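User: Please run a holo structure prediction.
Assistant: Happy to. Please share the sequence and the ligand.
User: Here you go; the ligand is thiamine diphosphate.
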Amino acid sequence: MSDLVSPSKQLPVTTESRAAWLREAGGLSAAFADGLVAHARCIARRVAQWQCGHVSSVAARAVLSESATEHATGAGVAETRDAAAICERLVAALAGPLTPAKSAWLEQAARKKAEWAALRDARAGGPRCFDAVWRREVLTQPQAIAIAERFCREIGARKFFDAGDVQANGFQVIRDDSPGETYTESGASYMGFAVSALLSQAIARQGCYGIAFTGDGSFMMNPQILIDGIEHGVHGTILLLDNRRMAAISSLQEAQFDTDYRTNDSVAVDYVAMAGAVAGVIALSAGDTERGLRDALAKAHAHPGLSLIHVPVYYGADPAGGMGAYGRWNVGPWSDGVQDAYTKTRI
Ligand SMILES: Cc1ncc(C[n+]2csc(CCOP(=O)(O)OP(=O)(O)O)c2C)c(N)n1
Ligand SMILES: [Mg+2]
């Protein structure tokens, strides 16, 4: 029997079922949190991350939100003031003596965090994986992201994350020291966000060199960045993690229907040639090694304008290839499993 116990429900979880439980419930906090503070959730839930086909906060008994949506369920408390002020008041309310229940919860959270750090290091620093489409050993997304995020920290670059596995792995791999180092669009997860965000640095009063972490699917939603970036004088890099498919959707299809369906194709695209065709863009191939990616990152940064680095990355069944995804969404037709879990949540 594992030591993972919900403080609210005293719900024991066996070691064997822990991975499945965490995956299905949406991560430790979403699985066991008694309460949820939701900011701008009403707008966001209409689209990808919080839509009604997404299950989260399964144990939450109360929700504090600015939205009226949850109040209809009787679980919510209306709070329409500034989110920062609300958070300050909540933190003040939580202060107080360290009760045994609180200590147990804190210890459990610290243990999970240590487990998490070990997993992160193992996945980000593990061996490369053999990929069936690339037909050779290539870097995994966690490895490529870890290498690039280390580079960003060394030179003080901003990071912008696109949708898909790139985003799911990115959130889990990055190690920021302060707010403002990483941006993503986590409400709707619009594919193509990262490169658009990169462009913003050209028009910002104090723009900063940045790297847009994007997938092959997301990049093709907004390839006009190659022209806009030159026109507006961006100093930034597009880091294209190419797994030859929309992997985030493939994995959901696999999880819900035991097969993937039309989330990849057989058409090879030479993204280095494509980007290099635009005057002013420097296009580089990272190859399949840490050394190759580091060299490309350094060259791209040294170029005063827009650059693109192409990195072939792994997709496949080996769990070492990713950090795991913990959300549950309906993908395509509604899945009975997701619907069943959704109707059991209070919010
Ligand atoms: C505009 C838009 N359409 C559809 C989606 C749903 N969606 C989320 S991730 C994804 C695929 C992303 O593929 P890619 O950029 O190659 O990333 P990967 O998952 O392969 O790392 C899709 C279709 C979305 N988030 N945004
Ligand atoms: Mg992809």
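Residues 215-217, 243, 245-247 surround magnesium ion (ligand 2) (CB under 6 Å).
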